[in-house]
User: Which sequence fits this backbone?
């Protein structure tokens, strides 16, 4: 387990971070937040949107805002809003994956079917020593307990031929998330860690929730909600 937030940033800055997980686990939101945080720390930063399975809440929809924050986004091969739904990935992705000049965050589609796209970039990923992290929300039915989480880890690893290097606890109940929700998710992920040896890298939640988490050996990753539209929170 990584001990502090500074350790977390140092750990994720050295090699491409590949985010996998279940649909709706918060991969894209985390990808954007990690990239912005890395850019603030200095240096060229890029997000690679490889999600061609899910048409909602994708990091590519933040291209303009990310650019303003010092982050380049690579995804669709055409680069136009009218074609952003086409499952055509930019050939530039391979060159970025192998370029150590950049801090790199890779946003992958959900489950093993969405992660299958990584096989297109297996050579570039091997050269870059990328770390695959699984984003988990235990309040999603497909990842609600240790057994289901382990099954998903195994299915993604089998599909991609890559090992999971760590887990990010993004257990949330949207706007009603409380610290106890995060801590319950951490408890379940610690069970997974004990059974698999895969470490829990960090807890992630909105800033005000992270501020009220008790101190622990697991750092917190405070997030801004860049991708979630306000209308989803209307009654």
Assistant:
């Amino acid at each position: 387990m990584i001990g502090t937030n500074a350790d977390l940033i140092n750990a994720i800055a050295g090699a491409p971070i590949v985010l996998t997980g279940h649909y709706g686990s918060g991969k894209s939101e985390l990808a954007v937040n990690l990239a912005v945080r890395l850019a603030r720390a200095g240096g060229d930063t890029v997000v690679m949107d490889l999600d061609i399975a899910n048409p909602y809440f994708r990091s590519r929809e933040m291209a303009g805002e990310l650019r303003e924050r010092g982050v380049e986004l690579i995804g669709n091969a055409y680069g136009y809003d009218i074609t952003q739904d086409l499952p055509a990935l930019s050939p530039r992705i391979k060159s970025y994956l192998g370029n150590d000049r950049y801090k790199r965050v890779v946003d992958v589609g959900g489950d093993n079917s969405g992660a299958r796209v990584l096989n297109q970039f297996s050579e570039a990923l091997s050269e870059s020593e990328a770390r695959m992290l699984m984003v988990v929300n235990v309040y999603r039915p497909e990842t609600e307990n240790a057994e289901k989480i382990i099954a998903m880890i195994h299915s993604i690893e089998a599909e991609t031929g890559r090992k999971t290097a760590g887990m990010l606890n993004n257990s949330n109940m949207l706007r009603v998330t409380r610290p106890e929700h995060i801590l319950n998710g951490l408890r379940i992920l610690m069970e997974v860690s004990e059974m698999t040896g895969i470490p829990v890298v960090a807890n992630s939640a909105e800033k005000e929730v992270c501020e009220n988490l008790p101190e622990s050996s697991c750092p917190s990753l405070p997030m801004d909600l860049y991708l979630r539209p306000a209308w989803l929170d209307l009654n």
